Amino acid sequence: MFKKIIIRIQNPKVFIGTVSGILLILVNFDVISIDLSNQITDLVNAILSIGISVGIFANPESHMTNGKEDNSRT
User: Fold this and answer.
1) Nearest 5°: CA angle at 57, between 56 and 62?
2) What is the spatial distance between Cα 48 and Cα 4, in angstroms, rounded to a whole number?
3) Does 4 have pLDDT greater than 60?
């Protein structure tokens, strides 16, 4: 039982959904304010944006194949 839960939580989509649900519950029970929830959301967005930027700048030609642009991803 717990192995299934741990395996499912390791999936990034399930983890993000779980964290979002926890934030929603905390806001609805007035444990945290909506402003704090918005600040947490802004912080997460900033961290993800930095991660995306570093990933792009670290390997800017990742979409290239043999010197030509790989259009199969679009």
Assistant:
1) 50
2) 27
3) yes
